[in-house]
User: Which sequence fits this backbone?
């Protein structure tokens, strides 16, 4: 039985991040769900994806982009038959690490200078990428008209979610993982991507020359190819 593929978008994005990836996966015979990541808090977001996984019969492959990688890392291991993890320009934290902490581990991220904040009445703070910086910061290899639409449709993440430490039992410690990222990612430093992949003993690590943070959008075929590879293998972690 082929695994159901659950795609989890990251901060400043929405499920449409995966539009170009879904068709080739479905053509290969996979059931695909592009989850709606709440982007409110790491534990709460992981619980939301865990609840979705509990409704799925059979094996599940989790795929996370950006902050979505931290979310899939924290999915409840008992939620379903999870067989692997694919990190697409994504965070893969150890227990106790936050996305914010990881991003500062190596130089190269310019995200902090590109964001603007919106205080909320519930005491949290929403973060957006400024529209005039979105193209260069998030998706420099995406055509300008599409980048403008992505900026207009971006979903904010709370500052609290980015500083919230990961919980115990990171899934990559027990399951096989695959990593794909761009050489010119301005959100997550490429050195950090390599560090996390090595730490997770990734089954495969692919760096796309010249690619931005928006790998699923700008390079959907490469993204789908790696996901299909992960879905077809059973690797002992």
Assistant:
């Amino acid at each position: 039985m082929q695994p159901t593929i659950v795609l989890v978008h990251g901060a400043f994005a929405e499920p449409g991040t995966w539009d170009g990836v879904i068709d080739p996966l479905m053509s290969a015979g996979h059931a695909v769900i592009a989850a709606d990541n709440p982007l409110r808090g790491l534990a709460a977001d992981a619980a939301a994806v865990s609840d979705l996984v509990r409704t799925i019969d059979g094996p599940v492959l989790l795929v996370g982009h950006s902050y979505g990688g931290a979310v899939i890392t924290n999915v409840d291991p008992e939620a379903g038959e999870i067989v692997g993890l694919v990190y697409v320009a994504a965070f893969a934290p150890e227990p106790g690490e936050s996305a914010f902490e990881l991003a500062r581990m190596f130089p190269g991220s310019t995200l902090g200078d590109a964001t603007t904040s919106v205080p909320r009445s519930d005491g949290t703070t929403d973060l957006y990428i400024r529209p005039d910086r979105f193209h260069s910061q998030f998706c420099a290899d995406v055509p300008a008209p599409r980048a403008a639409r992505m900026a207009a449709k971006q979903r904010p993440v709370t500052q609290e979610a980015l500083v919230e430490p990961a919980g115990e039992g990171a899934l990559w410690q027990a399951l096989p993982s695959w990593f794909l990222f761009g050489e010119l990612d301005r959100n997550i430093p490429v050195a950090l991507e390599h560090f996390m992949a090595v730490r997770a003993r990734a089954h495969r690590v692919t760096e796309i020359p010249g690619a931005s943070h928006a790998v699923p959008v700008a390079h959907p075929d490469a993204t789908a190819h790696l996901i299909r590879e992960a879905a077809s293998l059973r690797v002992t972690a």
About this structure: The beta strands are 4-8, 32-35, 59-66, 81-90, 115-119, 125-129, 157-158, 177-182, 204-208. The chain has a mean pLDDT of 96. DSSP finds eleven helices and nine strands in the chain. Residues 84 and 176 are 5 Å apart (CA to CA).
